[in-house]
Amino acid sequence: MNRPAGPGGRVCGPPVPAPAHPPRAANVSPVTPLLDLRGIDKSFGPVQVLHDVDFTARPGEVTALVGDNGAGKTTLVKCIGGVHQPDAGEYRFEGTPVRLGSPRDAAGLGIEVVHQDLALCENLDIVENMFLGRERSNGLALDEAAMEEQAARTLAALSVRTMGSVRRRVSDLSGGQRQTVAIARAVLWDSRVVVLDEPAAALGVAQTQQVLELVRRLADKGLAVVLISHNMNDVFAVSDQIAALYLGRMAAQVRTADVTHRQVVELITSGRSGDLGLRA
Ligand SMILES: Nc1ncnc2c1ncn2[C@@H]1O[C@H](COP(=O)(O)OP(=O)(O)O)[C@@H](O)[C@H]1O
Ligand SMILES: [Mg+2]
């Protein structure tokens, strides 16, 4: 598959020396993280948005990223996706320190972010949207047949049966179908990590259910999925881990099975819940 390669192959940029960093409390899990961010700081001018943030995502798991408006979720996701560069901290991919200079570098590692606005083109069809900017050519002409076939195969592999023709225009699709196209576009490229920023925010109940099932299938295929969501029912329905940001700090990252709705709401609203979370 012709995924865009980052400069120098798999790892983008020279490995950075590991900064001295105090050992953190172990987040006990049998699987090694694919993404492992530690001590991430990010400021915009004088405003520090992320403070010493740790975050991990493991293959085969859905990691929900939660937090109130302005907590820093999108900023963290943009650091993960190479849109922003952290000011400090360590970013490891499969245990190797990396420095991502752009979303293209992230894509080179198999990290894809589905942003909240989806960035689909209304006037183009499903195939054209899925290959936008990464079209396959056949000599001089675009290889329409190959792209159509691959788009249909990708949707089928995701068990998506509700789309109809892959030549439908995006302007004719429902919100849930658009979300599905954006997700399918993200997994078309041998992705290893898919980050979804509020995929169900604008969807009704049935469409939300379909998107959540799709999210679960991505993890079951072995991807590391990061799901930003405000909806506690969605988070508990689909996630294996929950990472709660509070005012730009990671209050806690916990296994979903180990916490209650109420504890997560407390982490979101006050940064702590009993023994969990930030110290005063
Ligand atoms: N490019 C930017 N320049 C300045 N401030 C920003 C920028 N991006 C985000 N912020 C600020 O960072 C904080 C966190 O924003 P964001 O990451 O979007 O939070 P969330 O996604 O959790 O709602 C907000 O106060 C926001 O105003
Ligand atoms: Mg946001």
UniProtKB/TrEMBL annotation:
Pfam families: ABC_tran
Residue ranges of the region described as Disordered: 1-27
SUPFAM superfamilies: P-loop containing nucleoside triphosphate hydrolases
Gene3D superfamilies with a match to the protein in the record: P-loop containing nucleotide triphosphate hydrolases (3.40.50.300)
Biased composition (Gly residues): 1-11
Keywords on record: ATP-binding, Nucleotide-binding
One annotated GO molecular function: ATP hydrolysis activity
SMART domains registered for this protein in UniProt: AAA
Signal peptide: none
InterPro entries associated with the record: AAA+_ATPase, ABC_carbohydrate_import_ATPase, ABC_transporter-like_ATP-bd, P-loop_NTPase
Domain (ABC transporter) ranges: 35-272
Protein name: Fructose import ATP-binding protein FrcA
